[in-house]
Design goal:
Order of helices and strands: HHHH
Helix content: over 70%
Strand content: under 5%
Radius of gyration: 14 Å
Shape: globular
Number of domains: 1
Number of strands: 0
Number of helices: 4
Length: 76
């Protein structure tokens, strides 16, 4: 088994255990990604400007890239 970052593993787990309906699966995966990038506990009492759009985008793309690499390795 490939070692993934905790964030990528949480998103992959959400996908693997989501209900088998396209819309629900997409919703569960997006919720898991949001929870990994900006956990709810981090939002309580925090500066709303602490995370920029670029920071959030970069974190989400890093998770996506890691999962894409996992997919490529699975093909070989």
């Amino acid at each position: 088994m490939t070692n993934l970052s905790p964030a990528a593993q949480a998103v992959l787990d959400a996908y693997q255990f989501a209900p088998i309906e396209d819309h629900l699966t997409a919703a569960v995966v997006l919720q898991a990604a949001a929870d990994q990038v900006v956990p709810y506990d981090d939002l309580k009492g925090s500066d709303p400007d602490a995370w920029t759009r670029d920071d959030i985008r970069r974190e989400l793309l890093a998770i996506a890239a890691e999962l894409e690499q996992l997919n490529e390795r699975a093909k070989t």
